[in-house]
Amino acid sequence: MKRYIFTAILCAATAVVFAQTKTTTTTTQTTVTVNDKGDTVEVRTDTVRTRKKLIKFSLNTGERTSAKSDSSEKEMPSKAPGFSWGITFARFDLGLATLVDNGSFNLSPTNNFLRYRSWKSSNVGFDVLQAGYRFDSAFRIYVSAGLDWTHLRLRENITIQQDGPDDALRYTQDNINYSKNRFTSSYIRIPLTFDWRSRQNDAGKRFHITGGPMVGFLYNGRVKQISGENGKEKFNNTYHFAKVRYGVTGRLGYGALGVFAKYYFNDMFDTAAQEGLRNFSFGLMFGF
Predict the structure, then answer these.
(1) How many C-beta atoms surround the C-beta of residue 130 within 10 A?
(2) Do 181 and 87 fall within a single domain?
(3) Potential cystine with 264: which of 115, 195, 247, 282 (Cβ 3.0-4.6 Å)?
């Protein structure tokens, strides 16, 4: 978890923009005078004025930001329709992961070996690419791409087997007391999002209601164990996780903060014994 938080902080730091505006104005004034001898003399006077705007730090969270100067600014007009695309760091999810076994939050006897610690099983993810179309200031649609991890902190002292037939997820019962036994799936996530935004209030913030379908492509599975006997061990494999998963996601928030929920329609594993075992996650989100 520390690695993901560090990654989020690093990405946020690269998205910070440092800006300082310096405006220099030169005014020339010509004065005509007559000296004691009756001659006409032109005197030119240059006045240099320098105005600096305050240094602004801003993080791209989807809200409109503007640098304030010493003069008042008018409210920006409604945005015209248009396309946008680029690199971003948005929708950083940090929540809890839950298994749904054929519509129940209680695991069946077949899947009871996957018993997990609810408050230590987490879902972490964020988007790094985005392309979309803005219809007006209130509504836009965009497709994004990012990374998504689901960590199950297993209660049992078992080791999920890397290889084996596709009929069931297999494991061994270990005579070791693991202080950490984590079972992780890692996906590239590609959500399609419909985003409704309210008008900006006096603080420059909006309410957001977003949602849409999401697809994920498996790129790694991992078992991480920590014990006094063997120290820290990591094993990478697909572990029969679904190669492709699909579902829906919804978000509700204000400003840069919000809540999220994700539910996947297909099974978590490509095994017959784990049919009907699916993934549901919910929690906090940072950065629209």
Answers:
(1) 20
(2) yes
(3) 247
Containing structural domain, residue 42: 18-56
Looking at the structure, do residues 40 and 132 belong to the same domain, yes or no?
Answer: no
Rounded Cα–Cα distance for residues 41 and 34 (Å): 6
Contacting residues for 206 by C-beta, under 8 A, at least 6 apart: 63, 197, 198, 199, 200, 254, 255
Same domain, 38 and 123: no
Using one digit for the tens of pLDDT, what is the confidence trace for 136-169?
Answer: 989 999 999 999 999 999 999 999 999 788 899 9
The pairing of strands 207-227 and 180-197 is antiparallel
Total number of domains constituting the chain: 2
Q: Residue 105 domain-assigned?
A: yes
CA dihedral 249, 196, 208, 91 (to 10 degrees): 50
- pLDDT tops 60 at residue 128: yes
Q: How far is CA 168 from the centre of its chain?
A: 34
Closest residue by Cα to residue 245 from 213, 223, 284: 213
The rounded Cα 32 to chain-centroid distance in angstroms is 66
Are residues 95 and 218 part of one domain? yes
Percent helix, strand, coil in the chain, to 5, is 10, 60, 35
How confident is the model over 75-124, as pLDDT tens digits? 445 677 899 999 999 999 999 999 999 999 999 999 999 999 999 999 99
Distance CA 41, CA 260 (A): 76
Distance CA 154, CA 182 (A): 6
Quick one: which of 91, 186, 82, 80 has its CA closest to 129? 91
